Amino acid sequence: MVRNWVAALAVTGGIALGALAGPHVPGLAASNAEAGASATLADRVAIEDMVTRYYANFGKQDAADEFGAFYTEDAVFDVNGIVSTGREAIEKFYADSAQEADAPAAQGTFHMMISNPVIDVTGDTATATFFWTGVMNTAIEDRPVLWEQGREYDQLVRQDGEWRVKKRVVIADSGLPERYKVTYAPRMDYDVSAD
Q1: Beta-strand runs (E) in the chain
Q2: CB 86 within 8 A of CB 92
Q3: Could you give the C-alpha distances from 149 to 73, 114, 190, 192, in angstroms and in order?
Q4: pLDDT single digits (tens) 181-195
Q5: Chain mean position to CA 158
Q6: Of 25, 28, 131, 188, which is the most buried if we count CB atoms within 10 A?
Q7: What element of type H or E holds 96?
Q8: Which SS3 state, helix, strand or coil, does residue 138 take?
Q9: Cβ(78)–Cβ(169) below 8 Å
């Protein structure tokens, strides 16, 4: 009987001591790496949010300045082989594209969806890849139409606490507008980290 009482006291004391000392499960113990992991996760969320806000501008005909705000001053923007260098040139590209007869905003209500993000953060730089899918809505009674789809590859830098695009390469996999047919190359194995 005394042994049961001593065993119960030892178990209770062990549980209490364990609760005070914290978890001892590998991967759950607090460490300095936790702060780094939290910062990386916050950066990944900030980058995905930035790209989502960027894509929210598609479907507008007057969004050139809004698009430009996401880039560094010296950014490089490659859309299916048409390359714009510098924020001003990127804004001009978007302004010119909005005037094209086949511009999505001229066809109906257009939305871009992004998916499959792969984001790697290293301090104040990062790379990100996404799939993008354009959806066209021509009339409220009609079903939406998948308009175009492709891939995006980004090099990003943190400037003044904000993530900005240093280089963006956009490659269509379907729905290629006429203006890109001369410069287009599929680049299936493109690696933005190699640039």
Answers
A1: 71-79, 82-85, 109-122, 125-137, 145-159, 162-174
A2: no
A3: 28, 10, 16, 19
A4: 999 999 998 998 887
A5: 14
A6: 131
A7: helix 87-98
A8: coil
A9: yes
Calpha distance 156→167 (Å, rounded)? 7
Look up residue 191 and give its amino acid. Answer: D
Say if strands 71-79 and 162-174 run parallel, antiparallel, or are unpaired. parallel
**Residue that is written with structure tokens 């005394």 in the block:** 2
User: What is each CA distance from 97 to 19, 62, 75, 82, 136, in whole angstroms?
Assistant: 62, 10, 18, 12, 17
Q: Which pair of tokens denotes residue 175? A: 């729905």
pTM above 0.70, yes or no: yes
User: What's the pLDDT tens digit per position in 112-157?
Assistant: 899 999 999 999 999 999 999 999 999 999 999 999 999 999 999 9
Structure token pair of residue 109: 């209500």
